[in-house]
Specification:
This protein is of the alpha+beta class and 134 residues long. It is built from four helices and four strands. The chain has one domain: Aminopeptidase. Strands 1-2-3-4 form a four-stranded mixed beta sheet. Helix 3 links the parallel strand 3 and strand 4. It starts with a helix and ends in a 16-residue tail after the last helix.
């Protein structure tokens, strides 16, 4: 999972580059995240290896959020991210969650298309400002 998350996160369009190189830090920051819901997180396997995933965060009440969805480069374009996210969302609904949130960077057209297909609507925008310090 660490390798899959590292690969997909490094390819995600963003104004901040991401590189996971420290497994122990990833365990502490991601795998042990207090909102991570392993029961609702979905991993799509191909030939016994993780190929795509959708990470679920929940508040333990009514709110569910997709923290990350990604597909290994070798398996992109096959619908695996959509399949993983669909499974996670259906299980969240069955578990009683009534609100689902997700986020996208503007340039991530494939994930934006998937989220539109699921019926997500824009409810907020985040803007980052940068300034060089001399």
């Amino acid at each position: 999972m660490f390798e899959l998350d590292a690969e997909t996160s490094s390819d995600e369009p963003s104004d901040i580059d991401v590189e996971f190189t420290d497994y122990e830090a990833w365990i502490e920051e991601n795998w042990k995240h207090p909102l991570l819901d392993r029961e609702l997180t979905t991993v799509a396997m191909v030939d016994g290896s993780p190929a795509a995933f959708s990470v679920a965060y929940t508040d333990g009440g009514t709110r569910y959020a997709t923290a990350m969805t990604g597909t290994a480069r070798a398996f992109r374009g096959r619908g695996l991210a959509k399949l993983a996210k669909n499974d996670s969302l259906h299980r969240a609904r069955a578990a009683g969650y009534t609100e689902a949130f997700t986020g996208n960077d503007t340039g991530n057209d494939p994930m934006i298309a998937i989220n539109k297909w699921f019926g997500y609507e824009i409810c907020a925008k985040e803007v980052r400002h940068v300034r060089e310090l001399g």
